[in-house]
Amino acid sequence: MELNLKDKVAIVTGSAMGIGRAIALTFAEEGAKVVIADLDEEKGKAVAEEIRAKGAEALMVKTDVTKLAEANQMAKAAVDKFGAIDVLVNCAAAWRINFFMQMTEEDWDFEIAVCYRSVLNCTRAVLEHMIPRREGKIVNIGSDAGRVGEPNQPVYSGAKAGVIGFTKGLAKDVARHGILVNAVCPSMTRTEKIVGMEKMFEEQGGDAWAAYQDRMQKIVRQYPLRKLGTPQDVANMVVFLASDRANHITGQTISVNGGYAMV
Ligand SMILES: NC(=O)c1ccc[n+]([C@@H]2O[C@H](COP(=O)([O-])OP(=O)(O)OC[C@H]3O[C@@H](n4cnc5c(N)ncnc54)[C@H](O)[C@@H]3O)[C@@H](O)[C@H]2O)c1
Q: How many CB atoms lie within 10 A of CB 210?
């Protein structure tokens, strides 16, 4: 299926690693020009090199997406380099796992800033450039936590529910400008962090490895497809929604989750 993404300009926040990296590489495989907007300059530059090795163009812009001024600078750098912005994927996020009563106000502010406020910042920054052109696609990475809630992640769950609500409201606001906005919700995904943790326990062996395997089996049993998704599973949906093949889809929330939550 031809996605018509060749030479389109796609900004992917949080693409120095994990799901964002897979999204950035998949855009590159489709011939898009990719802007990596991430706090981690070293890892971001490495992803830019991977993209160039695939024969596509890439720009790494060190950005703290919790700051509107930095989001504005990043969008300007994208336009200065590539002339326009066709796609924004809001993927950057971070979380702290803890029971609500053990969380501090600083924990709340951190999660709300990086999971929700960041989406507002980068969206505001790119709309400046998309609205005059009367076209654009925004894909927000939510989470099944925002749809069904996750224990020990109540503030993150709330922030991600906020991302879903924002997606719907904004989709109604900007449809008249030719801009489409959707949300993609992963559930637990086998990013390099999880693969790394698995290796660590395997090397430890003994009780630690047995306990880890037991815990993972219990988690995986909650998934009708009996496996965790990969970053590539999420990237496939994101790139589809950013393509011309999704020109009549807006304001939607789509989970990529092996059937974990059916909402
Ligand atoms: N991994 C999962 O199991 C899972 C499940 C559901 C939803 N998600 C969502 O998918 C997205 C990607 O998750 P992941 O597991 O790949 O994350 P990750 O931690 O592997 O990568 C997150 C990236 O965001 C960057 N980042 C963090 N704070 C930033 C900031 N202030 N400014 C700019 N960049 C910043 C990090 O440097 C990193 O490169 C997130 O939105 C997350 O909430 C992930």
A: 11
